[in-house]
Amino acid sequence: xxxxxxxxxxxxxxxxxxxxxxxxxxxxxxxxxxxxxxxxxxxxxxxxxxxxxxxxxxxxxxxxxxxxxxxxxxxxxxxxxxxxxxxxxxxxxxxxxxxxxxxxxxxxxxxxxxxxxxxxxxxxxxxxxx
Length: 130
Fold this sequence. Notes:
Blueprint: H1 7-15, H2 20-30, H3 32-47, E1 52-55, H4 62-73, H5 75-85, E2 88-92, E3 96-100, H6 108-114, H7 116-121
Antiparallel strand pairs: 1-3, 2-3
């Protein structure tokens, strides 16, 4: 299971829409490692002169890797994180996360990160099994 949804939140979701703040609280509590990785990438993005921040450290265990994969593979979770932090996220190889200023999505740094070439250049033997 990806998220630990409190009964009250589940009941509200069954009755209608749930807001981003409530959804992000569930994500933060359920996927703390993924939340921290995105937070570190965003923090780096905010101080970077090119407005790009990256996190490249492999997760300490498969549990943390699973959290990161669940967070970034889910359109709803990823989109919520992007709205919450005000960034565009990009993801490679089970752990490399980049946070881009939304104004840079059509720029060369973003295009390079999400390109097939960028993916191929980010390969190494230790990443092939992730």
